[in-house]
Amino acid sequence: MKHTHYIRQSRLFCMYRNYVLGIQKYLTGRDVLEVGPNKGVLFEKYYPETKSYTLLEPNRAFEKDYVQLKRKYSNLQYEIGGFETFTEDKSFDTIVMMAVISHIRMDSQKIFEKIDRLLKKGGHLIVETNNTKRNLGVFPLLEKNYRKIESKASYNGPMKWLKIDDRSVFIYKKA
Ligand SMILES: C[S@@+](CC[C@H](N)C(=O)[O-])C[C@H]1O[C@@H](n2cnc3c(N)ncnc32)[C@H](O)[C@@H]1O
User: Fold this and answer.
1) pTM of the complete model
2) Do the domain assignments include residue 1?
3) Best probe residue, ligand 1, of 100, 128, 138 (max atoms within 8 Å of C-beta)
C-alpha cells in the first residue's frame, strides 16, 4: 500500500483535532485500542497517560512510525493487520475508530459484534464517520445497544464554515 501525505495527521491538524474532540478523559488510565491510526500521531500526546495503547493498522508503510513511537512510549503496542482479521483475546476500556468504519470489509452487524466483543462492559467507543455511506448501518446498532454520551462535529469554527469535510464524532458507553 502506498503511503501518501494525509493532512489530518499533520502536526497542526492533530493539535486542532485534539482541541475539538476533548477525549483525554476516555483515555487516561485505560487500555485503549485505536483502529486505523494511520501514522499513529493523532492521540500521541495522551499515550503516556494510558495504561496501554494498541494501534491496529493494515498499512505496513506506517510500521516505521510505530517503531519510533514505541521507543518513546513503553506502553505502546501495534499490530499490522485489518480489523477483519484482528484476533486479540483481551478486551479494551476504550476503542477509538476515527474515519475508519467505511474502510472495513465486513457487514455492519459483524462490525458491531466485533466491537462489542473487544469492548469491556462500562467501556467507551469513540467513533468518527467517514465521508461515504459505506457501513453506516453500524450506527443504528450502536444507538440500540449502547448509550450515546457525546455527539459533535469533527470540525468547528472556520473549518466547519469552509465545508471542506463534513464528519461527526460520537462517543458511546457500553452498559
Ligand atoms: C481515512 S484514514 C483515517 C486515519 C486516522 N484514523 C485519522 O483519523 O487521522 C483510514 C485509516 O484506516 C486504515 N484502514 C483501512 N482499512 C482498514 C481496516 N480494514 N482495518 C483497520 N484499519 C484500516 C487506513 O490504512 C488508514 O490509516
Assistant:
1) 0.95
2) no
3) 100
